[in-house]
Amino acid sequence: MNEQEYNQMIKRCLRCSICKWIPQLQIKSQKYATICPSIDMYNFHAYSAGGRIIIALALEMGRLKPSKDLMDIVYKCTECGACAVTCKFLNTLEPLEIIVKLREKLVSLGYGPMPEQKQYIESIKNNNNPYNEPHEKRMGWLPSDIKNDPDAKTLYFVGCTSSYRRKEIAIASARVMNAANYPFKILKQKEYCCGSPILRTGDKKPFIDQVNKNIDVIEKEGIETVVFSCAGCYNTFKVDYPLERDCNFKVLHTTELFNELIENSKLELDNQVLHTVTYHDPCHLGRNSEPYEEWDGEALQMMPFISINIPEKPKRSGANGIYDSPRNLLNKIPGLNFIEMERIKEYSYCCGAGGGVKSAFPEFALKTAKTRIEEAEDTGAEIITSACPFCSTNLKDGIIEKGSSLSFYDISELILMALSSQPKSVKELSKGVT
Amino acid sequence: MFLEKEIFKEFEDIVGVGNIDDGVVITNVYAYNWCMEIFNYMDGKEPIPFSPIPKAVILPSSTEEVQKIVKLCNKYRIQIKIQSTGLGPWNQPSTDNCIIFDMRRMNKIIKIDEKNLYAVIEPYVSGAQLQVETMKYDLTIHMPGAGPMVSPLASATSMNGPGFTSPCTGHSARNVLAVEWVLPDGEVMKLGSYGLKNNSDWFHGDGPGPSLRGIMRGWAGTKSGLGVFTKVAVKLFPYPCSTDFNVKGNSPNYDFDIPDFMKLYVMDCGNFKKLEDVMLGVEEEEISFMCSYLSGFAVMAIFSNSIESLMDKIPIGQMKAPLVVIITARTKREFAYKQKVMDFLLNNFKIENIIGKIYTPKPIFYAEALRSNLGLHGFIATGGFQSSKGVADTAAVCLRSTKSNIPLKQEFIKKEAIANDFGEGTWMTSYESGHYFHMESPTMFDQTEESSVKGMAEYMEKSNQLDLLKHLGAPFFVEGTRMHELFGPYMSNYHIWLRKIKETFDPNNISDSGFYISPQNK
Ligand SMILES: Cc1cc2nc3c(=O)[nH]c(=O)nc-3n(C[C@H](O)[C@H](O)[C@H](O)COP(=O)(O)OP(=O)(O)OC[C@H]3O[C@@H](n4cnc5c(N)ncnc54)[C@H](O)[C@@H]3O)c2cc1C
């Protein structure tokens, strides 16, 4: 979004509050009708997308000045993008992009990111990960019996969270690829944070450094396809990297890859997983993973105030996120009973961790996770699964905090359980890793 | 900080920490609303979308808290402005001595009485929320044309009330049953059967004793000019067809399984006289779920979800007097009967249904009709939209008002102040199977261009006044002291009585009167 578009759009909020609800036509109950974790938690209109658009306008008009209070409101948003989906059912505003740009503006004025976010950005600069972990230990997750092929043209980009915090996801993903004899390479010490946690805070400069670092390595290694088990890394490579630099490689999420492997009979799910499971769509794999489409048309003025885009400008509406791949996988696991929550796909409720919220406002992240866990419980499922290590962390925290009887497994772990070729001890290993 | 520390603390003690804010950011956010720039300009102020900044915003969670806050406001002579979902300039304070109540935390559906056909709700239950819960009993509700995201309580107690389903679900003023009302002095008033000493319940809106429904909301609502409504019972209606509501695909290109017994008719009546005859004919038969006259441009808009998708509907736009009718039924036999009646009427009036011949809408249109989502399509062309007039009368009077507005609108289109809908932009619906009718004149403009804002404001003033000059009654957009004083002398001096009500019920002038009437000498 350029400056001119931003300045036009911030004047056009209807204050209709559509951004607070799931798409009106999808509302199935009073309980699960809302979509925005921020307004659900903090209640004042300022904490909705509409409210933040008003803040952007008031700043431009000089009615407000950047301040700590203002920053607090702008950063108490998970940038889950659900507001953009529901707003764009009929409107042409871009609430999420406005919020991102508003953060960028605050950063450029010396307000933001939040102190905790600044700390992890420093860690990324120093250690290549936001967790203050030594870079040398990045491969600590890798069991010796996992095969990786230094000559492969496919890269498994593990990501910081799976490398250091959710190792079971990296292990399960790698083991599934091994089981399918799908060759992949790991960058080991040459893998750096994708930059997503920086980008979401509005701190553009260090993000671009990460883009360049990662693309340089990928190009040098002659990689053709990059596979991700982390929805955040996947999204950043797929949607945000091409806005900064040409990317001459294909990106795939493991849910897409595993589907392909099953379709091509490389992987056979032949072990019963007798559980009732519900699936949480990560925002980064779902609605936000829709790439920008180039549009090179023009706006034709039909009459005063009415102009149309020729050809029609593609709307990033959330319709083209990755929704079917994970569902196909779950439906293919023998014995598994898959049931949906009420808020799914493009109008899925966020886990609460994104946009730098987990580090800056942990109580907000946790409350949101508990809300989502309750929704999962209401389906009658025993297991909640997802396809993102960051969602995994927050939802697991939510389960503990809520005292829920639900278990969380990443979808790669469920696939692993469905492979009879895997010895039981391996499954246990994958389960037990912390 | 806009409140003195000690006063802030007194409010905070009522609602708890985190439920009141008087910081500059939050209060500025609440000063903004859609179309505020027009009303500012009408008041001789700078045409910006911000009203006076409230002193604070407060989030009560119960009637008791509302009472205590209102009493405190009386003590400190601070005015109050109430927002349910808060859409539109009517939610904005008219002075800077005002606290906004955001009713978000009062969001309970207290009761759905499926036998006696009413539901009791708090202010922040949205139309969609109430509708889906009542659908579980094969029932539905009335929603204003604003859409399913607004508050049925706000519409029932405080503001206008026509909707696209008005032929079968009526008007908010007539759907409101018992009410719990915190008066401007902080006392609770229970209206209707809820006020009975013994066996109080919510099923009836009038009494005990004389009915106060007229005082409570009258024709168009007091728009927060007379206290706070904390609970209301609204009528429920049989759901018009099967409640299976299966929306498929992803936003915005949803697909929908059209219920078996639902049919759309769009007919060009050619001229207003015939339109009136056809509308009366259809409504006399009591068969319609929706029966609206819309300009050709507006019919194009309700079938489109973007400006670009308007363009393949040009033939619809060329219709002279389009009538949109939807019939629905619960059984095959009922459906067959209604279709037969429609066939008979079409034949009699020698008009054709273009649906399936010239145009076939996407199935999602039917879902939007059932969920009252069509009004929001008014925004797709320019993003700026507001209405004038708001007549409730016979079909003939509504059409006279429509006709008289066309040259005026064309004048402003020529000046390039408003968008070109050929002057015809009107929405007219029947209420309660043609018992009476409603018309208003939605108009598109560009809120980001000062000249358009000014032009739109001038047009709206003139459009409303036209009803006065042509003796067409009081439009519902007559709001605020200036307009009531302008219209009152021509209409039995109603404004004098309105003012007496205000003075009696609000002795300290606590409820913001910006969109109601100010007390004498204040
Ligand atoms: C596209 C569009 C189409 C529209 N079409 C229609 C239509 O067809 N029919 C129609 O009637 N209106 C229509 N409107 C206007 C609309 O009715 C109102 O904007 C809407 O009902 C407001 O609902 P709300 O929940 O936002 O109530 P609010 O906007 O919150 O409140 C409406 C008014 O009531 C007051 N109020 C709210 N709650 C309380 C309370 N608890 N106690 C005391 N006062 C209160 C507010 O101060 C305000 O003045 C339309 C608006 C738009 C944008």
Give an account of the 3D structure:
The complex is a heterodimer of chains A (434) and B (522). With 434 residues, chain A is an alpha/beta fold. In chain A, 44% of the residues lie in helices and 9% in strands. Among the domains of chain A are: 1-112, Orthogonal Bundle (Fumarate Reductase Iron-sulfur Protein, Chain B, domain 2), CATH 1.10.1060; 126-267, Rossmann fold (3-Layer(aba) Sandwich), CATH 3.40.50. Chain A has 19 helices and nine strands. The longest helix of chain A has 17 residues, at 204-220. The model of chain A has no long low-confidence stretch (mean pLDDT 95). In chain B, 34% of the residues lie in helices and 19% in strands. In chain B, strands 14-16-15-18-19-17 form a six-stranded antiparallel sheet. In chain B, strands 5-6-10-8-9 form a five-stranded antiparallel sheet. In chain B, helix 3 (36-42) crosses helix 16. The model of chain B has no long low-confidence stretch (mean pLDDT 95). Chains A and B meet through helix 3, helix 4 and strand 6 of A and helix 2, helix 5 and helix 14 of B. Bound molecules: flavin-adenine dinucleotide (FAD).
Blueprint (SSEs and pairs):
The complex is a heterodimer of chains A (434) and B (522).
Chain A: H1 3-9, H2 37-42, H3 49-60, H4 68-75, H5 82-87, H6 95-108, H7 115-127, E1 154-157, H8 160-164, H9 167-179, H10 196-199, H11 204-220, E2 225-228, H12 231-244, E3 250-253, H13 254-263, E4 276-279, E5 298-303, E6 306-310, H14 324-332, E7 337-338, H15 357-360, H16 362-378, E8 383-386, H17 389-402, E9 407-410, H18 411-417, H19 424-432
Parallel strand pairs in A: 1-2, 2-3, 4-7, 4-8, 8-9
Antiparallel strand pairs in A: 5-6
Chain B: H1 5-15, E1 20-21, H2 24-29, H3 36-42, E2 56-58, H4 63-76, E3 79-83, E4 98-102, E5 109-113, E6 118-121, H5 127-135, E7 139-140, H6 152-158, H7 166-169, H8 172-175, E8 176-182, E9 188-191, H9 213-217, E10 228-235, E11 237-238, E12 247-248, E13 255-256, E14 262-268, H10 272-284, E15 288-294, H11 296-302, H12 314-317, E16 322-328, H13 332-349, H14 364-370, E17 384-393, H15 395-414, E18 427-431, E19 436-445, H16 450-469, H17 480-487, H18 494-505
Parallel strand pairs in B: 2-4, 3-4
Antiparallel strand pairs in B: 1-2, 5-6, 6-10, 7-11, 8-9, 8-10, 12-13, 14-16, 15-16, 15-18, 17-19, 18-19
Bound molecules: flavin-adenine dinucleotide (FAD).
